[in-house]
Write a structure and sequence with these properties.
This protein is of the alpha/beta class and 303 residues long. Helices cover 48% and strands 10% of the residues. It is built from twelve helices and seven strands. A seven-stranded parallel sheet has the order 1-2-3-4-5-6-7. Helix 2 packs parallel to helix 3 and helix 9 runs antiparallel to helix 10. The longest helix has 19 residues. The chain is globular, with a radius of gyration of 18 Å. The relative contact order is 0.13. It is an enzyme of class 4 (lyase). It comes from Papilio xuthus (Asian swallowtail butterfly). It is found in: Cytoplasm. Its EC number is 4.1.3.3.
């Protein structure tokens, strides 16, 4: 039986790039240590934040190798997102992850010939799960990007019945009503990871305690403090900390698209050199970066 025990905060890691857009593998050990030292226990490799949809399969495999290697010294659970490519490549990546020792998989839906029903989505995820039968497999629900709008409670129920190693979903939606229904549909050995950083306090009140959020790279302690306040039933403190996190995110979002602004923010906050976004995305300007830094100082999030 396939077990899945990753819970809590799972940062989707950036893929560090050099200025010439080659991958900067040398940063990954330091990056992994930084996350582990802040109490992070698991990471997602190859998500939206990691930009693997823009990388070749060869490069994706090398990045996976680098994270599997650092897991040996940091004890991080390595989840890998294998979707966002032609199906043959997705299946190749899934079986590769099982072979090299990744801990779990996440997959996007087919992005061109999109699934249009619960059954066709289950069919797709089943193909991925069969390519790595010994690994837990989760589905990546991100309708804002994938445009696959399918009822998630119905999907989860059917996927659970049909796929032995189906272990949950990443739910990147602000619809916490649907999120609560998904949580109810899951079994004890499955998990739902929220993908909405500005909603972790209200989600935790609904019982959604795990999340995959880009800003856990930048502000892991703040996110942990929000969840701890909810656990203590200190609603006022949870709300105040959530507001701080939301303002910190808004300090970035006015300056451009998600990955370019967050890569800049990561360098400002942590000093870890994650470099520019992968093409076709473009880095933000130095002026925009200075404005983000100034806003974070005003919020007293950085010194």
């Amino acid at each position: 039986m396939v077990m899945f025990n990753a819970r809590g905060l799972m940062p989707p890691v950036f893929t560090p790039l050099n200025d010439d857009h080659t991958i900067n593998y040398s940063v990954i050990p330091e990056y992994a240590k930084y996350l582990a030292n802040t109490g992070i226990k698991s990471v997602l490799v190859g998500g939206t934040t990691g930009e693997h949809m823009s990388l070749s399969v060869g490069d994706r495999k090398k990045v996976i190798d680098a994270w599997v290697k650092v897991a040996k010294t940091t004890d991080l659970h390595i989840q890998v997102q294998v979707g966002g490519a032609p199906l043959s490549d997705v299946l190749d990546l899934a079986s590769y992850c099982q072979k090299v020792g990744a801990d779990s998989l996440l997959t996007l839906p087919e992005l061109y010939f999109k699934p249009d029903s619960v059954d066709t989505l289950v069919d797709y995820v089943e193909l991925v799960a069969n390519a790595a039968p010994n690994l837990p497999v989760l589905y990546y629900h991100i309708p804002s990007m994938s445009k696959v709008e399918i009822n998630m409670p119905a999907f989860v129920t059917k996927a659970t019945n049909r796929i032995p190693n189906f272990k949950g979903i990443k739910f990147t939606s602000n619809d916490l009503s649907e999120g609560a229904q998904v949580l109810r549909a899951l079994k004890n050995d499955q998990e739902m990871f929220l993908g909405a950083d500005t909603l972790i306090a209200p989600a935790a009140l609904l019982g959604i305690k795990s999340s995959i959020g880009t800003t856990w790279n930048l502000f892991p302690r703040l996110a942990q403090d929000i969840l701890a306040a909810v656990e203590r039933n200190d609603v006022a403190r949870a709300r105040s900390l959530q507001e701080t996190l939301s303002l910190a995110i808004e300090a970035h979002t006015v300056e451009g698209p998600w990955v370019p602004i967050m890569k800049a923010g990561m360098e400002i906050v942590s000093g870890i050199k994650v470099g520019p976004p992968s093409l076709p995305q473009k880095p933000i300007t130095d002026e925009a970066r200075k404005r983000i830094e100034s806003r974070l100082r005003k919020l007293q999030i950085i010194d």
